[in-house]
Amino acid sequence: MNHTPGPWHVVHHRPNLYKVETNRVVICDTFGGLSDEALANAHLIAAAPYLLAVLQQIVEDTNEFLNVSSDADTFTDRMRANCEDAERAISKAGGVL
C-alpha cells in the first residue's frame, strides 16, 4: 500500500482547524476544542512520511550491519547520522521544524 508522497505541510484554515496537505491534495483536517492540541496533532500527522523514511533507513542500516560484516567505524558513523535524522523527525513531529 502506498501513501501520498511527502512532504506534508500544516496550513491554518480557521480557528481550531488545521489542514495537513501537499501541493496537490488535502491529507486531513484536525480540529478540536483546544487549538494547541489540534495544531500538535496536525504537526504529528504531517511528519508521518518523514518519520517513516527515517525509521526505514535505521532498520536498513542496522540489518545491513547485522547481516554483513561491516567495520564498526562505518556502522557508528551511519548510526550517528541516523540518530541525527531521528532527532529532526522528532522535532518535525513536534512542530519545531
Please provide the ordered H/E string of secondary-structure elements. Answer: EEEHHH
What fraction strand? 15-25%
Strand order of the largest sheet: 1-2-3
Question: Based on DSSP secondary structure assignment, what is the total number of beta strands?
Answer: 3
Separation of the first and last Cα atoms = 28 Å
Roughly how much helix do the residues carry, as a percent range? Answer: 55-70%
The general outline is: elongated
Structural class: alpha+beta
Q: Return Rg in Å.
A: 17 Å
User: What is the oligomeric state here?
Assistant: single chain
Helical element count?
A: 3
Largest sheet descriptor: 3 strands, antiparallel
Q: Could you name the ranges where pLDDT drops below 50 across 5 or more consecutive residues? A: none
Mean pLDDT: 84
Which characteristics define this entry?
18% strand; 97 residues; 3 strands; alpha+beta; single chain
List the helices and strands and how they pair.
Blueprint: E1 9-14, E2 17-21, E3 26-31, H1 35-46, H2 48-67, H3 72-93
Antiparallel strand pairs: 1-2, 2-3
Account of the protein in words:
The protein has 97 residues and is an alpha+beta fold. Helices cover 56% and strands 18% of the residues. A hairpin with a 2-residue loop joins strand 1 and strand 2. Helix 2 (48-67) runs antiparallel to helix 3. The two termini are 28 Å apart. The mean pLDDT is 84.
What is the compact description of this entry?
By secondary structure, this protein is an alpha+beta fold. The chain has 3 helices and 3 strands.
